[in-house]
Structures are given as structure tokens and as C-alpha cells.
Design a protein that fits this description.
The protein has about 300 residues and is of the alpha/beta class. The chain folds into two domains: about 110 residues, NAD(P)-binding Rossmann-like Domain (Rossmann fold, 3-Layer(aba) Sandwich), CATH 3.40.50.720; about 170 residues, Rossmann fold. It contains twelve helices and nine strands. It has a six-stranded parallel sheet, sandwiched between helices. Strands 1-2-3 form a three-stranded parallel sheet. Strand 8, helix 11 and strand 9 form a beta-alpha-beta unit. The chain is elongated and about 65 Å long. The protein starts with 6 loop residues before the first helix and ends in a 10-residue tail after the last helix. Bound molecules: NADP nicotinamide-adenine-dinucleotide phosphate (NAP) and glyoxylic acid (GLV). Glyoxylic acid (GLV) binds next to loops.
Length: about 300
């Protein structure tokens, strides 16, 4: 295990196997992971762990890699498959929390919550003013959902309740072509997994296609957006604003974004509720225990 998990989950894991757990601060160093995976039958990994070819090659006894996340772009799944190692993730249990958080970001950026909070904390607020920090109302606006899977659909359902019209684009071609979605939507929200196909899906050309009054929301993976191009688009007011939960080189944030007022920056909090993180840990543990017990995992990656 690359970190500890809630007590109830640790108890289940310790009853089922001998556990070697990284107890250091922060992310387990990659070299430690390579060294300590040797001889292990299972690896329980976090979204921040690079489960690279060198980790998998060092884990010659590995039978399962159980990721505590729905995204699994941190794992070299090609090498894992070559070696017959099962990779599992934690879908569904985090859909509501992540969709809720996406709505929180949509509201924060369109209602200028971050700007207002900074104004109050800096002591610059002089009282209610008729035209202070005016934002954009959601009712009647179009939300473009890019990647219409579990989280994309859950975001769409929530946005409908706010009176928004929903359009989506997908890989299969159902819905609207991406170009048209970008040029007609008031808010564009990204929910595709990070793959070689979706890396920099949103770059300079795509941002230039968006309305000048539109907002970009990214709660999926940082590299889906070209951060340098986004900083340029926000600085030059090519789009009205953005709200981000994920970054190209976490925990680094493009320095230009840090000084811009029209972007909301969250520290990868999409699934961060106590209930959801516990459910994710529990599901990952169930996957791991099932495979070690010779049973099929509950949620193998597709
Ligand atoms: P999902 O159900 O698999 O949905 C992803 C959707 O994207 C699928 O419908 C997929 O279509 C579509 N897609 C894939 N490639 C595409 C492309 N090139 N263009 C358009 N659509 C494409 O996954 P999910 O559970 O919604 O999770 C989505 C992502 O959210 C995860 O991969 C993860 O990166 C991110 N996430 C972030 C947080 C956070 O803390 N910020 C929390 C949870 C999840 P197909 O079905 O045809 O492949
Ligand atoms: C979190 O980012 C996840 O993919 O679950």
C-alpha cells in the first residue's frame, strides 16, 4: 500500500493479507515503490503514484494493481496486461461527489466567488454595491459536456435542475461535434479520461473557438487542457473564465494562472468527501482481496 486507508478498510486488508504500507509523508517516492513492490502479490495505489513499467517489472509476483481512483492514467496498463496483472479502479462510488464538485466550480466561477472571497479577506470590501462582481446566471444557458460517461451525465442532470440546456460530445460520435459544442456553449465541462487521444484535447485552437463570454471547467485530468494556452486565453480575455481541479504537473500550477482573477483553482478535490473516499478505499480493498482469493474483481478496468 502506498499509503494508509481508513481503519475499517485497514482491518479488512490486514485480516486478508500481510500488509506492507508506506507511512511516510505525501506521495511514496518512486524508487521506494520499485524497491518495496518486489515479492508482493498485490499493489494498492493512489492516483498520485506512477505505476510505471519499472514498478511493474520489479513486481514479478504481482497479480493485481488496485487503484483508489476511477482514472487509471497513472498506471502502465499495457505492461500490466502483458504480464497478466489485473488492474482495477473505483467507478460509480465517486460519481455524485465529483459531479457535485463540478457544479461547485461552475457556480464559483460564474458567480465570481473566488474574487469576492479574496476581496473580503484582503479588507477591500466597502459594502454592497449595485454593480459589484456581476456574474452570469445559469438558467437558459448551454452546458457542453465533453465525455458523456458516468460523471458527465451526472453533471448534466444537476445542470438541468439549474435550468441549463445540455449538449454533449462523445468518442462514438453521438451528440454534437466538438467544434460545434465549443462554439455554441456558455460553459464547457470536461469529463473524458486522459488517454493519448485526449491529451491537449483543448488547446489554443479549441479555446479560440469558444465564445468570449464562455467558461471552461476541468475536473478530469490536467493534461486534457494545454495549460499554457489556457493561461493565454484567460489573460487575453478570449474566454470569460475557467475553473480547474486538476493540472498538467500536479501539484505545480502554471504560474500565470496563479495571478489571474478569472480562474478558480481547486487542489484536486473532486471526490473528496469522507463518505466517497471511504467507499473508494473499500472498493479497492474488495477488488484486491477478491483477486488474491482467486475470485473475479468487482471493477476491473475495461
Ligand atoms: P467514464 O464513465 O468512463 O466516462 C468517460 C467518458 O468519456 C466515456 O463516455 C467515454 O466514451 C468518453 N470519452 C473517452 N474518450 C473520449 C474522446 N476522445 N472524446 C469524447 N469522449 C470520450 O468515466 P467517469 O467515471 O465519468 O470518469 C471520467 C474521468 O473523471 C476519469 O477518467 C478521471 O480522470 C476523472 N475524475 C476526476 C476526479 C477528480 O477528483 N477531479 C474524480 C473522479 C474522476 P467511451 O465510453 O466511448 O469510451
Ligand atoms: C480521481 O481523480 C479519480 O480518478 O478518481
Amino acid at each position: 500500500m502506498t499509503r494508509g486507508l481508513p481503519l475499517s478498510v485497514m482491518t479488512r486488508l490486514e485480516a486478508a493479507c500481510d500488509v506492507d504500507r508506506f507511512d511516510g509523508k505525501g506521495v511514496m517516492p518512486h524508487d521506494d515503490l520499485v524497491a518495496r513492490v518486489a515479492g508482493k502479490h498485490a499493489l494498492l495505489s493512489m492516483v498520485t503514484d506512477a505505476v510505471s513499467r519499472s514498478v511493474i517489472e520489479a513486481g514479478t509476483n504481482l497479480r493485481v494493481i488496485a487503484n483508489v481512483a476511477v482514472g487509471y492514467n497513472n498506471i502502465d496498463v499495457v505492461t500490466a496486461r502483458e504480464r497478466g496483472i489485473i488492474v482495477t479502479n473505483t467507478p460509480d462510488v465517486l460519481t455524485d461527489a465529483t459531479a457535485d464538485f463540478t457544479l461547485a466550480l461552475i457556480l464559483a466561477v460564474t458567480r465570481r466567488l473566488g474574487e469576492g472571497e479574496r476581496m473580503v479577506r484582503r479588507g477591500n470590501w466597502k459594502g454592497w454595491a449595485f454593480d459589484q462582481l456581476l456574474g452570469m446566471q445559469l438558467r437558459g444557458r448551454q452546458l457542453g459536456v465533453v465525455g458523456f460517461g458516468r460523471i458527465g451525465r451526472a453533471v448534466a442532470a444537476r445542470a438541468s435542475a439549474f435550468g441549463m440546456t445540455i449538449v454533449h460530445s462523445s468518442r462514438s460520435g453521438s451528440g454534437m461535434p466538438l467544434d460545434r459544442l465549443l462554439s455554441t456553449s456558455d460553459i464547457v465541462s470536461l469529463h473524458v479520461p486522459l488517454t493519448s487521444e485526449t491529451r491537449h484535447l483543448i488547446g489554443q485552437a479549441e479555446l479560440a473557438r469558444m465564445k468570449r463570454s464562455a467558461y471552461l471547467i476541468n475536473t478530469t485530468r490536467g493534461p486534457v487542457v494545454d495549460e499554457t494556452a489556457l493561461a493565454w486565453a484567460l489573460r487575453s480575455r478570449l474566454i470569460a473564465g475557467a475553473a480547474l481541479d486538476v493540472y498538467e504537473r500536479e501539484p505545480e500550477v502554471h504560474p500565470d494562472l496563479l495571478s489571474l482573477e478569472n480562474v478558480v483553482l481547486a487542489p484536486h478535490l473532486g471526490s473528496a468527501t469522507t463518505e466517497t473516499r471511504t467507499a473508494m478505499a473499500d472498493l479497492a480493498a474488495s477488488n484486491l482481496i477478491a483477486v488474491l482469493g482467486g475470485k473475479p474483481p468487482l471493477t476491473p478496468i475495461p
